[in-house]
Hydantoin racemase (Cupriavidus cauae), 222 residues
Amino acid sequence: MRFVLLNPNASVEMTARMCAVAREAIGPGHTLDGHHNPDGPAAIRSAADNALAVPGLLALGARHLHRCDAAILGVSMDTALGELRRQATIPVAGVTESAMLLGSQLGAPVGLITVGPDLVPLYRDLVRQYGLGSRLAGIIGIEAPGAYGGATDTSVADKLRDAVRTLHRAHGARVVVTVAAALCGYVNLRDTDVPLYDGIACAALQVLALARLRQASLSSAG
């Protein structure tokens, strides 16, 4: 099957990092192409950035969604997820929605980790909009500018480990998921109190399952 990852921001590097995680999750025998939004912000760190990304993202969807079996929306804010789904005839998975759905199946309540505290209230509202507020333990936005670099940063890993510990011990999380694209590549930590998963991987696994279900349904109908 063929998959696509759409990144609403302008970062080629972040797109490549997300695609690497998604390809590993999907496994061999499939293809996944990634596309960034050259007209979008460098990164989505505010509600204003989120809104700025929408026109270019929908244009990406119009160009690429009809060419594949399923799509990953590669942004933790699930930017314009509803609009993309209305635009598409294929499954589209958002990172935070997938993190909450799959994470809670593995052991609710779920803790979410992103980069920077400014978007935390928006994440909380997003989870409530999905009707999943009762499954949320808490959200932490770590101060980790090093996460936006090309290589993994040990200081980011330390802050991530501390955030997992806080979500478990102070908020009761039984599973923690990183939802920021900038945290791709940091989930293989040792000595975490509870399991830690990557939100991009969650979205990739969800679209793989949904694409297979859709394919089976189409075959049955034919």
User: Anything to note?
Assistant: The two ends are 18 Å apart (CA to CA). The mean pLDDT is 92.
